[in-house]
Design goal:
This is CRP-like protein Clp. The chain has nine helices and eleven strands. The chain is of the alpha+beta class. It folds into two domains: about 140 residues, Sandwich (Jelly Rolls); about 80 residues, Arc Repressor Mutant, subunit A (Orthogonal Bundle), CATH 1.10.10.10.
């Protein structure tokens, strides 16, 4: 009887390591055979040019995606034809979870940069998840992280001050970079100032002034799209400080 050659776990991990797909494909506790099953359904290195779409609003849920490199934004369009950016996706983060409820996408995913994407057919992923112990739990964790990012976005929008919104945005982005194994205090913004302004509900001039003000205060250093956090403690305080409540209106009664 011919022995089955051992699965090269190191090679599989190296293939996904650059984009942190291992968060989905390499959860703890799955053995070599199960890993082969999961690895077999991943379609690797689908190129997407800057401005290209992975899917559009109304498209049926066919796959979820992970950028091996590059970044994406999720965009919806209002009845007036205006774009609203709902989120950004860094390398290694799942794209396409908006369709899980209705099985149709509610927005479109647009490449911010030229990207290479891993495509995971959703029906096959569900089938493998039903057979691979631990993968269902891992998928729930990844979905929970996506919900957490949505919550962070809401937290940015309810802030009245631009400094707080931008600080919370940079803080959250740094934490996400750290989660995929990249420096959290020095990173390149894949999105434009205009995209950031749209996402935060601010004017682009306000975003530019706020970046300048945070730099003048010695909290960050900005060179083009490169951001270096100089004073992490001050950025964290600014990101999470609670605004003082507005003073109660004085009674006009005599």
């Amino acid at each position: 009887m011919t022995a089955t050659p051992p699965l090269d776990i190191t090679q599989l991990r190296r293939g996904c390591g650059h984009c942190s797909l291992h968060q989905l494909c390499l959860p703890g506790g799955i053995d070599g055979h199960e890993l082969e099953q999961l690895d077999s359904i991943v379609r690797r290195k689908r190129p997407v040019e800057r401005g290209g779409r992975l899917f559009r609003a109304g498209d049926p849920l066919e796959a979820v995606y992970v950028a091996r490199d590059g970044a994406f934004k999720s965009v919806s369009t209002t009845e007036e034809g205006e774009e609203q950016i709902l989120g950004f996706h860094l390398p290694g983060e799942l794209i396409g979870l908006d369709a899980l409820g209705a099985e149709r996408h509610r927005c479109e995913a647009v490449a911010l940069t030229t990207a290479n994407v891993c495509e995971v057919p959703f029906d096959q992923l569900s089938d493998v998840a039903a057979r691979v112990p631990g993968l269902q739990q891992q998928l729930m964790r990844v979905i929970g992280q996506s919900v957490g990012r949505d919550h962070d976005h809401l937290g940015m929008l309810v802030r009245r001050d631009a400094d707080g919104r931008v600080a919370l945005f940079l803080h959250s982005l740094g934490e996400r970079y750290a989660h995929i194994g990249q420096p959290r205090d020095v990173f390149k913004l894949p999105m434009s100032r205009e995209d950031i302004a749209n996402y935060l509900g601010l004017a682009i001039e306000t975003v530019s002034r706020t970046f300048g003000r945070l730099q003048e205060q010695g909290i960050i250093e900005v060179t083009g799209r490169r951001v270096a956090v100089v004073d992490r403690a001050r950025l964290d305080r600014l990101a999470h400080q609670r605004e003082a409540p507005e003073p109660a209106a004085r009674s006009r009664r005599a």
